[in-house]
Every structure is written in C-alpha cells, then in structure tokens.
Amino acid sequence: MEKQHKLLVVDDEPDILYITVRTLQKYFLVDPFTSPIKALAHFEKHANEYTLVLSDIRMPGMSGMEFLNVVKLIRPDIPILVMTAYSASDDEIVGAIPWIAKEEIVHKPFRALEICGAVKKILKITSS
C-alpha cells in the first residue's frame, strides 16, 4: 500500500512518541514532534501537506488544547485526533475542546490496532 496520508504527531513523552510513530509509519507518512511549539512553527509553513494532526493534550510550554486551537485557526478543515492519559472523561475533553468529537479521542495506553484504526476511521480509509 502506498502511503498517501501525511500525519503530524505531537507528544512530549519521547517513548510514547516513538511507539506511536513506529506503529503509524506502517500505513502513513509521519512527522513527529516532542514540542508543540516546534510542531506549530512547522505546521504554519507546511499546513497543506498534512491530512491529519494527532496530539497529546497535556504537554509543557503549550498545552495540546492550545496547540490544536491554533492548528484549527490555520487550517479549519484538518482532521484532528487527540490522545490522552489524562483521567478526564470524554465529555470533559469535549467540553474543553468544543469542536472535538468523542470519536476523535484515544486514551493511553492504546494498542497499535486501536490508534491505526482511529486514524483510518477519521480519514475514512477502509482498506488496510
């Protein structure tokens, strides 16, 4: 399968980012960042290259919520997937990020099939 979709993935925890990227690289082109500030600087210049942004919610310097709000200002049509180890319920997360849907939230720890399936579902990819 040719990798046609390019993802921007942001998580401040290098180990989780590494595992997430390794999993997603089987199906997608992936640009990883441990800093939401650096990811945002990159996204501002390359926003049209991406088909989805995947971000953690809790990160130092700039929260994932702040990061994603700016991403949506730059490119309102970009699909978003949020990953979190935060103990808040999906309803609390949706309350904090009103434009996010429950289907766009993945809780850590997640299995490889779960994260790939969530990305494919959002991008409406049916073949594996």
Write the layout of secondary structure elements.
Elements: E1 6-10, H1 14-24, E2 29-33, H2 36-46, E3 52-56, H3 64-74, E4 80-84, H4 90-96, E5 105-107, H5 112-123
Parallel strand pairs: 1-2, 1-3, 3-4, 4-5
Helix pairs in contact: 2-3
Give a quick set of tags describing it.
phosphoprotein; 5 helices; Rossmann fold; alpha/beta; Bact_response_regulator; 41% helix; 128 residues
Report on this model:
The protein has 128 residues and is an alpha/beta fold. The chain is built from five helices and five strands, in the order E-H-E-H-E-H-E-H-E-H. It has a five-stranded parallel beta sheet, with helices on both faces. Helix 2 (36-46) packs parallel to helix 3. The model has no long low-confidence stretch (mean pLDDT 88).
Biggest sheet strand line-up: 2-1-3-4-5
CATH top level assignment: Alpha Beta
Q: Give the number of domains.
A: 1
* Radius of gyration of CA atoms, rounded to a whole number: 13 Å
Query: What is the N-to-C order of secondary-structure elements (H for helix, E for strand)?
Result: EHEHEHEHEH
Distance between the termini: 8 Å
Please identify the structural class as seen in this structure: alpha/beta
DSSP helical segment count:
5
Overall residue-averaged pLDDT value:
88
What would the principal axes of the Cα set say about the shape? Answer: globular
Largest sheet: 5 strands, parallel
Count of extended strands: 5
The low-pLDDT segments are none
Q: Give the CATH superfamily.
A: Response regulator
CATH topology: Rossmann fold
Report the CATH architecture: 3-Layer(aba) Sandwich
Oligomer description: single chain
Helical percentage: 40-55%
What is the strand content? 15-25%
